[in-house]
């Protein structure tokens, strides 16, 4: 039976009060697993600043972020990711975000995380929220190693719309088949997908997205009081 509604969730600064990609790179740097720690932190900061300004491309991000995956074996990466989840992610998951997701799941809505961050980093996080589907940027994987390159269309900006439509089409569905379609996001980079759904929700929005949401009459949702203070 087709779900009556579709609920899509951005991840970083939306369901999480942090950026999982940035924090993963920082975790590797401070634990001595990212080459020169100072250089890694500097590149990480630069990428985050460009992302927040809406100036970052998926390819620019992948050069550094996916390069971190390519430098190590999958066995090492999986082991380290367990540490990362325990030390960084799980302590940051807040009840307000869990409750939002739970409301949609218990209503029988079809739910998915739609994130620009790569699938390796975000798959365990999506599972931690109980969200059954994940649309993320795919890291190319050949002969048992990550290559440092993107596979297919990155789940970023307009690419999120492309990937969501492809995912739905694989189930014989389209956005128009749902009575309501929700997308929760904090970022101005996600405007293409926010404009594609019937219920865009600016969630913990950046100043630019908050202004656009008010101009368009979109719902504004603040899940994290401390983030609202930081962005006001």
From TrEMBL:
EC number: 3.1.3.15
Catalytic activity: L-histidinol phosphate + H2O = L-histidinol + phosphate
Pathway: Amino-acid biosynthesis; L-histidine biosynthesis; L-histidine from 5-phospho-alpha-D-ribose 1-diphosphate: step 8/9
One GO MF term attached to the UniProt entry: metal ion binding
Organism domain of life: Bacteria
UniProt feature coiled coil, ranges: none
Keyword entries, A-Z: Hydrolase, Magnesium, Metal-binding
Main enzyme class: hydrolase
InterPro entries linked to this entry: HAD-like_SerB, HAD-like_sf, HAD_hydro_SerB1, HAD_sf
Pfam family, any one: HAD
Protein function: Catalyzes the dephosphorylation of histidinol-phosphate to histidinol, the direct precursor of histidine.
Record-stated family: Belongs to the HAD-like hydrolase superfamily. SerB family.
PANTHER family: PHOSPHATASE RV3661-RELATED (PTHR43344:SF13), PHOSPHOSERINE PHOSPHATASE (PTHR43344)
NCBIfam families, per the entry: HAD-SF-IB, HAD-SF-IB-hyp1
Name of the protein in its database record: Histidinol-phosphatase
Organism (species): Bordetella genomosp. 8
